[in-house]
Amino acid sequence: MTQTLLQLDLDPLGPYFGANVRGIALARATDAELAAVRAALVERKVLFFTGQDLDPDTQVELGRRLGELTASHPVIGGVDDDHPEIYALDSADDGFADVWHTDVTFMPRPPLGSILRAVVLPPSGGDTNWADSQAAYDSLAEPVRRLADQLTAVHDGNREFGYYLTQRRGGKGSVWDGEVVTRLDPVEHPVVRVHPETGRKGIFVNPGFTSHIVGVSEAESRGILDLLYAHLTRPEHIVRHRWHLGDVAMWDNRSTAHYANRDYGAAHRVMHRITLRGDRPSGPATKV
């Protein structure tokens, strides 16, 4: 028998992408509510919850109820010894995310999704933007979609985290997929990712971690990536969230990219993120 999902009270932010979820206290959510949230996350790709009272313990517990948690980050340790799953993005410690990216695509199995809560906010600024990679793919011209379907890209974490791993962690990072991260070998992923739950295609390259396209010249790679980045971040593919204390955002890492505005000067901003374990990305040309 097919189980009927609870109907959430959603305030959509666009026709297909993003929604505010009303009437759920995440720290005390029922199994039925979280099952509905999980389904809405796949459909709407990024969800926002206001007025939440999560702390480190309840944020981790929420994540465990939604899926299998990863370490905080392959390279950067947890916020404290009791919460190795929480990645603290602290502006006082260069914790910025002001480049378009999809979380941790430089690993063979990037996270399925992320759960982010506001801890310290500047008086103004610090909004976060999300881009819908599936809508972006769908709105590409058909010949460009055909080209992108055939391509593979290299993702490299060394540009952002190589120095941190070697100099600040002594070459010993976190345990990721059962192994201690001691180096960041570039990985290959399809330029177009097929979502494992819906079968929809989405653009799966990002300026933060994608270094180049495989099998083409440097100039061709740069041109293709610039085209895809510009298209991915067109205004009609984006939702923007203005943070307030008590806000929580969840997003599907398999169908989105995001960018945190760094427009608050010397003011302090701290966000706590956890991530759910994902699978190896598959593309249209992936052989089963």
UniProtKB/TrEMBL annotation:
Residues 11-275 form the TauD/TfdA-like domain. GO terms for molecular function: 2-oxoglutarate-dependent dioxygenase activity; metal ion binding. Keywords: Dioxygenase, Iron, Metal-binding, Oxidoreductase. GO terms for cellular component: cytoplasm. The keyword Membrane does not apply. The keyword Metal-binding applies. Pfam families: TauD (PF02668). InterPro entries: AtsK-like, TauD-like_sf, TauD/TfdA-like. It comes from the Bacteria. Belongs to the TfdA dioxygenase family. This is Taurine dioxygenase. It comes from Phytohabitans suffuscus.
